[in-house]
Amino acid sequence: MQRLNKIIAWICLTALALPALAQEKHAFTIQQALDYAKKNNVQVKNALLGIQLQQQQNREITGSAYPQISGSVSGTYNPYVATQVLPNFISPSVYQVLQDQGVKDGSGNTIVMPSDFGNIAAQFGTKFNASAGVDLSQLLFDGQVFIGLKARSTSIAWQTKYAEVTDETVRANVYKVYYQLLVGKTQIDLLDANIERIEKLSHDTKELYKNGFSEQLDVNKVEVQAANLNTEKLKALNSISNGYLGLKFLIGMPMKDSLILTDSLDETQIKEGILPLADYNYKDRKDYQYAELGKKLNEFNVKRYQLSQIPTFSLSGNYYKSAQRNKFDFFGKGDWYNLSAISVRMSVPIFKGFATKAKIEQARIQLQQTNNQISNLQIQIDQEINTARANFTTAVTTLDYQKKNMQLAETVYEQTKKKYEIGTGSNTEITAAQTDLKQAQTNYINAVYDAIIAKIDYIKATGKL
To answer: What pLDDT sits at residue 311?
Structure first.
């Protein structure tokens, strides 16, 4: 038992020394812990980044409706200008003129046009070419872009609701771990009280043994009980220490920082808040709101593919200057020639191998799946609320019962102890009373925690967390 006391003392001293080594010290109420988690929990932070990501995706969609302007500059060097072989169209004209004029050859014969004049090898172009210009395009109408623009606000709302759903899940876990640690404090207080009782009993039993009114067996039994209580306290302290680490991880706090919980358990507050069975609304649930926004996005998806079957209109224009040189002297004197065009384009989808129809049907099926999920979610919410309400009611009743039972066990122990001290009770009776008291305290601690969990689950089920 002395060794266990030393270990417990070492744990306590270590716990006191840790804040001095930590970079920061935090004393949190439950609300402060929730606020800290909202800013530092990785899942919540990533969900909030998802909103920013959607905003940038919306900008991308909006950008496709704005004019698209690009500039270009190009230069080409042709070491060998391309040669084109053409039919000899010059010689026939010359011979035709000679024939028309009646010109004779050196022998005095009339010139006759040959049947084949062959080909001419000609080069078109220059060794150096350069151009610079601007292209502009403007989408006048595209059904898919139009739907994308309409869906922007819904997309932001959908991502925002997802962040709220994530935050709600984290909040529920923070509540549970925070109050579990508070219950752990109560458990330590009860164990300390039991250890104090057993140490007093051990002292009294040893005195009775010295005076011949007790046996060594009785002294040994009490020491076994004391060792068991100290072992249980050691395990409880370790469990609480791990619980603090878990809470730090959950709220996103560095492990080297110290954390102190400043709230206390209030049984009256735990018992409050049971709503009438029919007093809830599906729309209070954030996951239900999230599902409805998902349905709306699926409806936009169907419309997007439907509008992809109608014509699209666009406007484009360009302006260029170009030059051709046999020497690289574009920055000197020389002509630059203008080139410009303005065009309007209508693109009419005629046949795409039934791919668009398949996409429309896929989007409709996905919409029906979402409708089915929403219908199932309503059933799930009904089940969760009814189950959580029943568990909450039972947990509160059990808590009252276990509290009274613990108080009764304390009374029985005290009475049994008095009988033992005056010699009218046996060591067996007081051992049994101690065991019953410890069990009643354990049952009470479990009942408190069960009531807290049941209330958090009930509040979350009704969408009030």
So the answer is: 92
